[in-house]
Design goal:
Helices cover about 40% and strands about 10% of the residues. It is built from 19 helices and 9 strands.
Length: about 550
């Protein structure tokens, strides 16, 4: 198998590449020249390279309802983009592909396990403060990398089916990477979550923030934020709230993002756009808890650049379902950080700059290298909404409304204060999305069909969940997390073709509840190595693409911001 464009930041490779999709015999043993981990400093240095150098952000946005389709004649797309947008199997293997996600996240797991092994050989966490912190970091990294993998390649956790739903192989030792037979046993989603919980609970008490730049590592606050998201997905609402309480303290509003700073920054050229995104990812911002870098096109595709705009958060989508829509806070005029809108030529999008476009030059002579981006993986803002969702599930409606109000009044200029009765009344007055015959009429209100039990449609609890999911969608837009909410709440979503007038022309496909395509297919190279694939509606070779016939879009004369 040919593996394209992979950067390994250290000399460490895998003990066995069966899990990582290589059948090459020369890769089935550890290299002899790997670094000797004989000091606490070397262990800590290894863990720097255990943070994954790829991100599922781009493909998750494409698969979610944050993206519309501009048609196959739009030149700003390719086969891989089409495959991910239409929930097909990816066959291209680019840097944002499922294949690279699988390989690089397992690389991080391998390194975390090697660090844990070295820590024991050096006397264990009790022998040294640096080793203690490194053990905590390694355990959290092992849990986090598995968490991303199981949520990409497995079904969302639920207490009804996860005991039998295929998970991903949970590697707890370096030796696991040489046990090909064991690797082929995916286990179950429930087993994966139990092991992640054990690693999180063991790791958090060991973290002492002994880093030069804590926000590039699993510092204590980032660990709490991860635990909050993890237990929310695990349906353990009390644990999600417990860790959120530890993180947020008594005045979370004081630590939320200041969107006025971002809105005040000038935007008249591409370099200024990058500066805004870099400001969003600023390590000094109190709201940012963990910041990572990765090789990815996301910094261009999910920003106002002329790349991958065949799949875009369109102006129509922004105005009917996201930040520019009429909503519970009032009109779009109250929005503080306004999206950057383009409606010109082949580009129709309304995006905020969250992901900087960075360039890593590998050859100064040719100028060749990699496109990279930064991503803020955990924030105070998201954790606040995680707590609100947990509170709704715990029946703590007033507390949930208080948290949602705090978030809402920070994101919008609004004096609205949310109450359970007020939220119910607002959502009672809205139709559900896509209830028309052609499934085209949008709404911020979606049919929710989680596998856990919630109140009936129209109940206070269901209305509160509609509200928090709407706010979460806005908070996490362009960062890939909406896709996981779609999976957790089993939300049906369309593949809308945008017509010449900038509005949906028709639906080309539909993701139903319990649709097998909610689960990303195990890459073909991994399946060839013996790992069981995920079921699909039809085999990729038999898949009939939707009818793409449409009226070509005219050239727009609108003003582009970039």
């Amino acid at each position: 198998m040919k593996i394209k464009n992979i950067i390994y930041k250290s000399g460490l490779m895998f003990a066995s590449m069966a899990l990582l999709a290589s059948c090459s015999d020369e890769l089935d043993t550890l290299p002899d020249n790997r670094t000797t981990l004989d000091t606490p400093e070397k262990v800590a240095g290894l863990l720097v390279t255990a943070y994954p150098d790829r991100t599922p952000t781009l493909i998750n946005e494409w698969m979610s309802d944050n993206t519309d389709y501009m048609g196959p004649r739009n030149s700003m797309g390719d086969r891989e983009g089409d495959q991910m947008f239409f929930w097909e199997e990816d066959t291209e293997g680019g840097n944002d592909s499922p294949e690279h996600i699988w390989m690089i996240y397992y690389e991080g797991i391998y390194k975390a396990n090697e660090a844990l092994n070295a820590i024991q050989e050096l006397g264990g966490a009790a022998s040294n403060a640096s080793l203690r912190n490194s053990e905590g970091e390694a355990l959290l990294l092992r849990a986090y990398n598995h968490f991303v993998l199981v949520n990409e390649f497995g079904r969302a956790y639920n207490s009804k089916t996860s005991q039998t739903d295929p998970g991903i192989y949970y590697a707890t030792t370096v030796a696991d990477f040489s046990e090909t037979t064991a690797q082929a046993n995916r286990g179950t989603v429930a087993e994966d979550y139990a092991k992640m919980a054990a690693d999180i609970e063991a790791g958090i008490p060991l973290i002492n923030d002994s880093y030069k730049v804590p926000k590039y590592h699993f510092n204590k606050k980032a660990a709490y934020a991860f635990a909050t998201r993890f237990y929310l997905y695990y349906e353990k609402w009390d644990k999600a709230k417990e860790y959120a309480d530890k993180l947020l303290g008594s005045n979370p509003g004081a630590s939320l993002r200041d969107y006025r700073i971002l809105q005040a920054m000038p935007l008249s050229n591409s370099s200024q756009a990058v500066k805004i995104a870099e400001a969003y990812c600023n390590v000094e911002a109190e709201c940012n808890l963990l910041i990572q870098t990765s090789v990815s096109y996301a910094g261009m595709a999910l920003a106002p650049w002329g790349l991958y705009k065949r799949y875009a958060l369109t102006n129509y989508l922004s105005q009917t379902e996201l930040t520019e829509s009429e909503n519970i806070w009032g009109s779009a005029s109250g929005l503080i950080w306004k999206p950057f809108t383009i409606n010109q030529g082949e580009v129709d999008c309304a995006m905020t700059m969250k992901l900087p476009r960075e360039v890593e030059i590998l050859n100064k002579t040719t100028g060749s290298g990699y496109l990279r981006t930064l991503n803020v993986d955990f924030t105070i803002d998201e954790a606040l909404l995680n707590r609100a969702e947990a509170e709704i599930m715990l029946g703590q409606d007033d507390a949930a409304c208080a948290d949602m109000t705090t978030w809402m009044q920070n994101y919008f200029n609004t004096s609205v204060t949310l109450t359970p009765a007020g939220v119910k009344a607002f959502f009672d007055a809205l139709p559900y999305a896509y209830d028309d015959a052609e499934k085209l009429v949008p709404s911020i209100k979606k049919h929710l069909s989680p596998r856990f039990t919630i109140g009936a449609e129209g109940s206070v609890q269901e209305s509160l969940l509609q509200c928090v999911l709407d706010l979460r969608r806005i908070e996490t837009v362009l960062q890939g997390l909406r896709w996981f909410d779609i999976k957790r709440y089993n939300i049906e979503i369309p593949r809308r073709l945008i017509g010449a007038d900038g509005k949906p022309l028709r639906n080309l496909d539909w993701l139903k509840k319990d649709d097998p395509r909610q689960v990303v297919q195990i890459p073909q190279s991994i399946r060839a190595a013996g790992v069981m694939g995920n079921p699909k509606v039809v085999a990729p070779s038999q898949y009939t693409k939707p009818d793409y016939t449409y009226t070509p879009r005219p050239k727009y004369a609108g003003q582009a911001r970039l």
